[in-house]
Specification:
The chain contains 4 helices and no strands. It has 125 residues and is mainly α. It has one domain: 23S rRNA-intervening sequence (de novo design (two linked rop proteins), Up-down Bundle), CATH 1.20.1440.
Length: 125
Amino acid sequence: MINKSELYVITKTRDLVGYILTITNKSPKNLRYSYVNRIQEYALNTLSMLVEANECQSNENEGENRKTLQKKSLVELKMLGYLAYLGYEAGAILEKHYKQISLQLDECYKLLKAWIKSDIERNRV
């Protein structure tokens, strides 16, 4: 079930995951187990961690878990970008798809950084 008041970073990451799953279905079969599966895993893991982080309250007890999940999500997004580039170089992803993934990744990364900053500022008060 999708929440209408879902965090924008989760919405955009979900869109990215959908795009990646769609375009990688057309990847050459000989590259699916090396690049494509890993790219899909990182995309799905990132979405999963963001949803889990959003379920944590930003109070003292769960705040550390939330921060950890947010930071891990940043790393997953970076790794996804690296793998997408390697997949593009290997021919698993077309150039136009790689460019679109890069644009969406950049947007997700910025939104996630803004969410982290917002949590930090909220906890200072």
